[in-house]
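Aim 2 progress update. The chain analyzed this quarter is reproduced below.
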Amino acid sequence: MSSTSVYEKLLQIKDQNGAGFLMLVDPDKTTPDNLPSLVENAIQAGVDAFLVGGSLLLTPNFDRYIKTFKQYSKEKPVIIFPGGVHQISAHADAILFLSLLSGRNADHLVGTQVQASPIIHSLNLEPISTAYLLIESGQVTSAEFMSGTRPLPRHKPEIAMAHALTAQYFGFKFVYLEGGSGAKFSVPPSLVKAISSSIEIPVIVGGGIRTPEEAAEKVESGASFVVTGTILEAQNDLDFIKAFAAAIHQRKSV
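Predicted structure tokens:
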């Protein structure tokens, strides 16, 4: 990676394309043997960066997995999307330093972060402070169950907006609106619009986005980055991933 930080690169991607396309890869769903094909298709299709991690981690040796991932990712940033302190690796380019601001569990607000900070510092890994907001998605997701917190109501955008403003005032660099992996419903456009029009920091939207049309809808509502994972891992089809990239990147005037 160059001297430009990953955070700065993401902002450049947003400015150049109108919105960025982030692909989430779960080590439990994509084995090291399947990585070359998936990552190659993603890069060729136009994915801007990779998020790697998950709520659970049944796959042994996360560090080795990230090292293997980096062999195929070329110049695309590999960013850890941690489900816990055990998901940290010096081989990644950065880590989303998440605080579950939608919940009231102190461990997920600051406790786990205190444990992780010395490790991240010792590895010289770039942290990107991100306020993580779980949004009600129609069913209990892994993130909701594992964190033991209630998501924010999907049809009350003013509650989510207040949390997003709090994130900005705290100094977070991103707000991540999460429907949850495999969510029944993705984050409503009205909620994305309410938040993106109220804060000045970039908004990431992920969870339950199954079609290019849904991805485009998030960008049109003000999302700076769209995250897809489960559907792309299952399909691993070049044309399908290209359709997502086109839907996200073509909205340059938004």
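DSSP finds ten helices and eight strands in the chain. The beta strands are 20-25, 49-52, 78-80, 94-100, 126-134, 174-178, 203-206, 225-228. These observations will guide the mutagenesis experiments scheduled for the next reporting period.
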